[in-house]
Amino acid sequence: MEDCQPSLEDMSNASVEYIRGIAVVKAFRQTAFSFKRLYDSIKNYTKTVIPYSLSQELMTAALSAALNGIYLFFIPIGIWIGSSINDYPAFAASFIFYLIFVPVITSVLMKMIYASVNAMQVGNAVERFDQILAEPEIPEKNTYPKPSVYDVVYGGAIVFPGAAQR
Question: DSSP secondary-structure letter at 139?
C-alpha cells in the first residue's frame, strides 16, 4: 500500500499535466504517447497496484463470503433449534428478527472494514503532508539589485524620465 500511494500521486500529477497540455497536443497533432511521463506513470501505477490487489484477493473474498454467507450457518441452526422448541410462535418471531438483524450487522461490519482501509490511506497521506511540512523553510534573499535609473523607456525613447529616484 505504501508503494501504491506515491505512484497514484505521480499518475495524478502526470494526468493534470497532460490535460493542461491538450491544446499543444491538438495543435501539433501529437498522440498521447508523446507525453511519455503520463504513459510511464500509468505503467508504474499498474505495476504496483496489480500485485497489491492480487495479494488482497483471497482475504477479501473469504471475508466477504463469510459475512454474506452467515445465513448458511444461521438458517440450519435456527431450524434445528426450532424443531425442539415447544413455543413455536415465540421462537419464529425471534428467528425472523435475527434474520432481519443479521444483514444489518453484516452491512455495518463491511462499512467498518472500508472505513479502516480509508483511515489507513488518510494516515499515509497525513504522513506525506508531515514530511512536506518538516522540510526547512527556504530563506528569502533580500539582495535584489536596485536600479540606478527610474526612467520608463519605450522603443528607445524615454517616455517618463526620472520617476521619483530614491
Answer: P
Would the CA dihedral through 54, 55, 59, 62 be positive or negative?
Answer: positive
CA atoms within 13 A on the CB side of 160: 5
Half-sphere exposure of 114 (CA within 13 A, CB side): 7
- Measured CA to CA in angstroms, residue 19 lies from 8, 12, 13, 23, 136 at distances of 16, 11, 10, 8, 32
Name the burial class of residue 154, with classes exposed (0-12), middle (13-18) and buried (19+) by CB atoms within 10 angstroms of its CB.
Answer: exposed
> Do the Cβ atoms of 4 and 121 come closer than 8 Å?
no
- CB within 8 Å of 141: residues ≥ 6 apart: none
Residue range 76-127, pLDDT digits in tens: 888 888 888 888 888 888 888 888 888 888 888 889 988 998 898 888 889 8
Whole-model pTM: value is 0.51
Distances in Å between the Cα of 148 and the Cα atoms of 144, 152, 161 are 13, 12, 13
Query: Closest Cα partner for 11 from 39, 49, 50, 51?
Result: 39
Whether 152 contacts 158, CB under 8 Å: yes
